[in-house]
Design brief:
The structure holds 2 protein chains of 2 kinds. Chain A is an alpha/beta fold. By secondary structure, chain B is an alpha/beta fold. The chains are: A alpha/beta, B alpha/beta.
Chain lengths: 272, 386
Amino acid sequence: MAEVLNPLRKYLRQDSLPHFFCAGCGAAQVLNFFVQAADAVNLDFDNLVAIGGVGCTARIPVYLNADSMHGIHGRTLPWATGIKLHNPKLKVVIFAGDGDAAAIGGNHLIHAARRNLDVTMIVVNNLTFGMTGGQVAPTTLRGLKSTTTPYGNLEESFDMCKLVVAAGGTYVARVSTFQPRLAVNALKKALNHKGFSFVEVISQCPTYFGRKALGSGQGVVAVKWIKEQSVTLKDSAELSLEQLDNKFVMGTFADITRPVYLGGSIFPMEEE
Amino acid sequence: MVNQVHRRVLTGTHFMMGNFAVVEGALAAGCDFFAGYPITPANEISEQMAQRMADVGGAFLQGEDELCSIYAVTGAALAGAKAMTATASAGYNYMQEGIEYAVSGEIPCVIVDVQRCRGENYATQADIMQARWGAAGDHEMIVLAPSSVQELFDHTIRAFNLAEKYRTPVIVLSETTIALMRENLIIPEPDKIEVINRVKPSVPPAQFVPYAAEADGVPPLPNFGDGYRILHSINPHGEDGDIHWKPEVFDRLYQRITNKINAHYDDIVRTEAFYLDDAKIGLIAYGSECRPALEAVEQARAKGQKVGLLKLSTVWPVPEREIKALAQQCDLIFAVEMNIGKYAGEIERVCGGACEVVRITKNRGLIHTTGEILEGLELKLGVSLR
């Protein structure tokens, strides 16, 4: 009998599996969501540059059968900026963790959004630094425990979507691993969007976030917790600031067009 | 639409500032991408690049910081650009991170560091060690040290050529002195300028092994979008590009990326000899310090001293053969530099006791005067040279 391959397997590098993600990790789900979305929009993998920084999420491009960059924390967007300014025809997709995007790479994030750089950035927000052992992140909700907040996090968490909208991002959406179909749809829209498209996927890290903050290392516990913490953008309009405290608001925060940045030349390369 | 009115190579004789000469050298070498962040005394490079990239249809980016600039340069380089950034010492600190990626990812690019004193724009050569050792991880660096406006032009072209040839970042170690100086610059006809471009794969993607280098240790490099689908990771990677956690893989990678520089010493290392044929006393200098050092040599010669100058145009890798030969020829070597005495340690190491090395160093924000160097010679030799 002929070997039956998952039709999406062709998008992954030949010898890359098994992947290195922990059992129950949301980053592996996002890899799955991405290839589903890429397949649906007929993404040309010969023309794709997939970029990851450092961290668990940053490993996603390592598995994709495309030109890819990996290995420097927080600098995914500067790489993308250089690539797009030299060759605007390349499709650039960034996979960043919340540490990559909101902590060390936060400055690059607001400036890429300001420029409306024509790239897609997928942020897997698991509210912690997973690869390094579960330290507190700028996205960790107030009060939660981590390996560096043994008595609970005293800081306010970042709302990355609000930040990107304010900075000028033109497609901005938040989804979660609890609702895969919504996540795939958001990724499809992002891939088809001209300009800075930003999708934040609230995700689970059972190994560190789950054990430290939720008292369980099971993925399903963390996913259920994400569901309980989530409200839709529509419902959020009816809630007070107190009721929205420490909640994830799910939905599309921007879907507009404005000119994309093609570089400082007064004679920019022609668009497709 | 690309504007064809402006020429890429400004053939002719100019009276030009050093920072502008860097820009014209880059363009003559084929540079079509520049990213930078404001910092004195490198600003004229960015300002002129903003205009010249627009002239020739290249891309210019003012990054939000030096990190953005160096990483935009490496990203553009992998997309096929001949890319450059320019900064000054404090900004060069930040760029070490990106230079590390360029070294381990074998990304051809050029970084200009206009050395300045800590926080101020006075003259110094204090980055000489940072230029070599600033990036993390085992690596060799190619660092060129120009000493004039003409050499800023020439060395920038050479930096691009070496970067392309060996798939590695190359540093042009400029200085406040020459960067802001105006001098005569002769730009040759375009067909008289050697321009080297990176080697592309000669086989289709299915047969291409990304890091299986030829005998020269330099793997061919396709552009993003050429269909080769290569993983570029800073992590230890095998010949296939994938991340491997095996000691043999680490070893093979580090051996290759260091050997590809060391094995091409003859091509990379350049020195110039002045009055060395019969010299018994040698001065060794690099960068702008070659200027007062050469004057000092000529004045000491006029006083009957058999003294000469070895000028190091390539500072890293260290011109060990030339320094060793000088140590065997001379009774005494003076190491002249504008810092607390850093490269002097390298010269002492290479001389290995074959010859006494005396340091003439200064870090007061000013280049050595000829008199100061002569004074250093007088103190040791016990003769009057002025």
